[in-house]
Amino acid sequence: MDGWPTRNMAAGGVGGIQVAARTGLETPYLSERWFELVGLIQDAAEQHGLAVWLADEFPYPSGASGGEVVLRHPEYRAWQMEATCVRVAPGAEVEVQLPGTVALRACGVPVGGGVARWPEAISLEAHVGWLQHEQLLFEPSQVYLTTRRYMSNAPRPTLSWRAPGGVEAWEIWLVAAAEITDYKFFGSYVDLCNADACTLFLETTYERYFARLGPDRFSRLAGFFLDEAHPQNWSWRLPAFFRQRCGYDLVEALPALWTDVGPRTTRVRYDYRQSLTELFDESFMRPVAGWCQRRGLQLSLEVPSTRNVVQRHADVPGIDPGHDKVGVALDDVLGFARCPDRASAGAGRAVPQRRLVAHAPGHEGDARSRGGPRGERVRVPRLLLHHRRAQEVGRATLRI
């Protein structure tokens, strides 16, 4: 490595670089060769006075150690919760597949005057069983006395129930969870509300950097960058945590997350979101921040603007408002996403730290603020620096 990128960046006023594994990487992540290249990059950067940050994942979001966490421990994989509602007439024979692989809540609500009467809801969990929903024709090449076999697959929880009479109609609410199997980059994702998964992430990424780089070289790093780590909407650790925090059963109250169940709806939704955030914070954010503090390194974050509470753990907070688009008009999204520094400035006013990160849109270009937090001016270019052999990607941040 001849050092020309770091030399030119230093001459242009860039204060530091970030070593990040991204799509296209050809050097096996966290291999001995990977750590050799990180050392070469660090040497070149330090020669020109640039601080060196390490992105903690390949590629992102953080928490999977390039996929190792979920491949070695399937029990650490993330789950997603969904709900479905059907309205049926009295006396109807109902057979409905639940929207997941594990049933969480099934209930029937009588309807009167067009309104669901939730105080009279009845449990339907006892009416949920298993059906295999894929029918297969198998034609084996070597089976005695037959050339065809009819088989089935894809077992799913299924409700089978006759709706009682005497009411206008019935609303049936079914809530189920399923393991995430099509998540970007890793196939699955990590349950970041599981503290054991976080422990493995720290062991397989952070501790490896410390061991492979050595105490002296490691101590000269600026810190780690944690990218977009976030909880999914369900964790098997959540019900017990919720009951301890809120004093009532989350599973029984789940339909309130999707529909108005009466006066307690707002309370259930607040308690759910607050509990999920606190469990994520306790299980993942605090351990990662604590590890960095014990090793004397800084921690920088990038999170969507709806999860700014975790910024308190960052030495350099960061925000990516472009992720929060649901329900926003396209013109507003495009206008806001071009000004991430404004969103970061707003986040900066909520935390005591003097520095922050704004995620510039796309893979090049820059964003300028007219008034950053406490009056600083912020310029945030985002650059791609491809090493010919390893395809490592570097992001440059300016001194602010």
Blueprint of the fold:
Layout: H1 4-11, E1 14-20, H2 32-47, E2 51-55, H3 68-72, E3 79-88, E4 93-97, E5 102-112, E6 115-116, E7 122-123, E8 128-138, E9 149-162, E10 169-179, H4 195-213, H5 215-219, E11 223-227, H6 238-246, H7 250-253, H8 265-295, E12 298-302, E13 318-319, H9 330-337, H10 340-348, E14 357-358, E15 393-398
Parallel strand pairs: 1-2, 2-11, 11-12, 13-14
Antiparallel strand pairs: 1-15, 3-10, 4-9, 5-6, 5-7, 5-10, 8-9
Helix pairs in contact: 4-8, 6-8
Which short descriptors sum up this protein?
15 strands; 400 residues; alpha/beta; single chain; 5-stranded antiparallel sheet; disordered C terminus; 10 helices; globular; 28% helix; 5-stranded mixed sheet
Order of helices and strands: HEHEHEEEEEEEEHHEHHHEEHHEE
Give the amount of beta strand, in percent: 15-25%
What shape does the CA trace take? globular
Q: Unreliable stretches, pLDDT < 50, 5 or more residues?
A: 361-400
Q: Looking across the biggest beta sheet, what order are the strands in?
A: 12-11-2-1-15
Instruction: Please outline the major beta sheet.
Output: 5 strands, mixed
Distance between the termini: 28 Å
The proportion of residues forming helix, as a percent range, comes to 25-40%
Compute the number of strand runs: 15
What is the mean predicted local confidence, pLDDT? 84
H/I helix tally: 10
Report Rg.
26 Å
Query: Structural class of the helices, strands and pairings?
Result: alpha/beta
